[in-house]
Every structure is written in C-alpha cells, then in structure tokens.
Amino acid sequence: MSMPFSRKTMIVIQAVSILLFALVSAAIPNYAFIIFLLYFLVFMFLAMRATTRTMKIPPRNELGSPLFKELNALQVMLSDKMFQAEMNRQMKLMFVNLGLVFLLFILLPVYNNYIWPFISGALGLTSESILVNFIRFLGLYLFFMGVMQGMRYMLIRGQSSTPPVIPARVFAVYKKGVVLDERQFVKFTEDICFRVDHDRKFVELVNTRGNTVLTRLYTLEVGKLTEKLREAGVNECKQ
C-alpha cells in the first residue's frame, strides 16, 4: 500500500526527529532511550491509524455496483515470473536495512573515542553544557545517518528503493475507488493515475504526489480494466 505520509513529509519528520533526539539526549541523557522508544511507538501508532483511516471500505450502498471485478488475480500474479525476482530484491533490501542497524553498535565507540574528541578539540568545546551536549549528539545522529545512507547506496546501488507492493488476490473497481481483498480501499483522487504493463498483465495505481505505487492489479483483461478506470475518472500516468 501507499505510505501514510508523502516523501517530503517523511524527510521533514526525519530532520525534526534528529533535532529532537539530540535535544533530549543533551537535556536528560539517562532517559533518552525511553523517550525515543515512546516516540517511535507513538509515531508507528499514528502511521497505522492514518493508513487504516484512508483504507477503510465505505458502506456498500455508497459504492454502488462494481465497474470491474477480478476474482482470479492471484493466479495471474503467479504466472508473472518477474514478480518473484522483485520480491527477492525487496527481501534483500530488508536484510540490508536490518544489518545496518547492528552496524550502529560498532559506530558508537568510534564516534565517542575518535570523531567527537577531534570535533570538540577543533571547535574548542571543553565544557559539559547542554549546548555542547546538543552539538555532540547532533553530530552523532548525523554521523549515523551519513554512514547508513552511504552503506545502503553501495550495497543496493542500481536497485529500486520502492517499498514492496503486495498485489491483491481479488479486487473490485467502483466509481469512487477500488476494494482490495474485501479488506482495504484505495480512493480515487485527482492525484492518482494508472500505469500499465501488458506483457505482465497488471495495472498499477500510482500516487503522483509522491510517485508511489498504491497497489498492483493483476488481470487477464488489462484493456477492459483500464477502460473502467478511465470511466471512473482515473487517467494513465504521464511518462
């Protein structure tokens, strides 16, 4: 599914989070880990609530009759030989990200024993004030992020960083949107377009604001599906 926040919003949240982490670490370092844990739990909860709210299926009387219904999407998906390769790549990306987290435990003493003494000496930061501690932890988190982004780029260079898309097993297209597996709903808005792959027999719904794939619809009737999507007011994505 789509990300609950746009890419620009995620960048802003990430930047604010670094400043928040550095500030909390500087002010109350003994409780920093607990506060960070609570922050991530609240952030994940809000993200899940946002996703649930946007994906809730409207009442059936509001949807009306389906324009297109596909009950055999799973069989069509299994015939796509490239899909398994895509999933294998996504699994590799997941393990790479997990491995980079463990790398932080190695980087922490490197920063504390070598990098920070050099920075503090160069800037003449000898006191233990909150401002000095803020600069120290800010540098730490920026160092972590820089190393992780650099390692990720070298390990997965040339591969797509798009989050994995799990296609629906069954779906139905309505005027207002598409119902996926009788559990989720993608509402048609002016920011949504569709992308077609005739050879692999699927249509992807794309959010143009973040250029993110919302879902992938497998069907043997690709032409009919795109016709019904246009009827619902969804246009093909511009190349």
Describe the overall structure.
It holds the Pfam family DUF2208. This protein has 239 residues and is α+β, with helices and mostly antiparallel strands. The protein has a domain at 171-236. Helix content is 56%, strand content 15%. It has seven helices and eight strands; from the N terminus they run αααβαααββββββαβ. It has helices at 7-27, 32-54, 60-63, 73-78, 81-123, 130-155, 222-231, and strands spanning 68-70, 171-173, 177-180, 184-187, 192-197, 202-207, 212-218, 235-236. The strands form two sheets. A four-stranded antiparallel beta sheet has the order 1-2-3-4, covered by helices on one side. A four-stranded mixed beta sheet has the order 7-6-5-8. β3 (177-180) and β4 (184-187) form a beta hairpin. α1 (7-27) packs across α6 (130-155) and α5 (81-123) runs antiparallel to α6 (130-155). The longest helix is centred in the middle third of the chain and has 43 residues, at 81-123. The model has no long low-confidence stretch (mean pLDDT 82).
Feature tags:
alpha+beta, elongated, 4-stranded mixed sheet, 8 strands, 239 residues, 4-stranded antiparallel sheet, 15% strand
